[in-house]
Structure formats: structure tokens, C-alpha cells
Amino acid sequence: MITTPLRILLVEDNEADVLITRRTIGKLVEKPEIEVVEDLTSCKSKLISFLPDVVISDYNLPTCTGLDVLQLVQEKSPELPVIFLTGTIHDEELAANTILAGASGYILKKDMNNLAEKLRPLLKKVVFKMDAKDEVRERLRQNRIAINQIYDYLDNLKLDNKEQKDNMGKIKRTIRNFEIGDDDDKKT
Asked: Where 4-aspartylphosphate occurs, residue numbers (predicted)?
């Protein structure tokens, strides 16, 4: 059993698959915190406020595709692993393309009977990459949530003139530079 608590964002519209996936994660992870969404708008909101350790997403959703979810995740948190749990990927070329696009893995829904066996190594890989201590990780998470909320606020401002738009662009660049500087500081 994985003893590191994991925050998991499950992007899935099929209630039966949600139940199976939740039950399986509960068997694999000691204290999982799972949030479920079924569209891109809700996914974006949870990426800002919940900031998961991993995203598990269906590939074929009613309002978007898994690649749309992957692209959104990469925009908000490029380091965040995304695992596809899908019935759509039937050919190896499409599966390879999802991995090349940045997905951390995929599991076919036809393998739901063996979901624990398929999901365990992918979640262990997620935990292995989480090398920060819990306290530091939580501080980083809170900072990231604050930054995401600032970005979201700035994106939703109604700007009346070019000078305001230019100033907002400068603020965003400054925040990004600050984030990049923080990442550089963590490496040294």
C-alpha cells in the first residue's frame, strides 16, 4: 500500500468508472483525497483550488478530449502527471501519441478488472517523484494555489485600455520570472 497521502483529480463522466476507480485507489493509497470532475471548466477550477498530485482522466469526455485535459494541465502545472484511463485508445499509434504529448501513462478500460495491477506502478512512480518533505510540499502547494488564483483573477479582469493590458502582461511576466527563480533556487 502507498502510505504517502495523494491528492488525485479524476476527470471522468461515467459514474460506474468513477466508483471502480475510487474503490481501486482506496485499496492502493492509504489516505487518498479524490476530487471528481467531468468537464474542462471544472477541471481548470480544481487545478487552481485543489492542486492535485496526479490527474487521472478519461480520454473521451462529452465536452472535450483527454488531450484537451492534458493541455490544460500542462498550462497550469507542467510537472503534474496525467494518466489516461480510457476505452478510446484502441490502436498503438494513438496511445504512443498521448505519451509523446506528455501523458505519464494510460490504462485501457477493458482492463478495469485489473485496474489495481495497472494503476499501482503508475501511482508509485508519482510518489517516487514527490521528493519534497510533506511540510515543504504543502507550502509549495499553497503558494501555487495563490499564484493560480492570481492568474485566474488577472485573466478575468475586464481591461478597458491598452496601458492596463500592458501592465497586466508585465505583472504576469514578473510572477512567472519569480516562479522560475524559485525553481532555480530549489535546484541549488
From this structure: 58
- pTM of the shown model: 0.71
pLDDT digits (tens, 9 = 90+) for 107-131: 887 778 888 999 999 999 888 877 5
How far apart CA 136 and CA 29 sit, in angstroms, is 21
Q: What's the structural domain count of the chain? A: 2
**Residue 11, pLDDT score:** 97
- Distance CA(111)–CA(90), nearest Å, equals 12
Domain stops at, among 108, 129, 150: 129
CA distance 125 to 128: 5
User: How many whole angstroms separate alpha carbon 172 and alpha carbon 72?
Assistant: 18
Domain limit, last residue, from 129, 145, 165: 129
Which pLDDT band holds residue 6 (cuts at 50, 70, 90)? very high
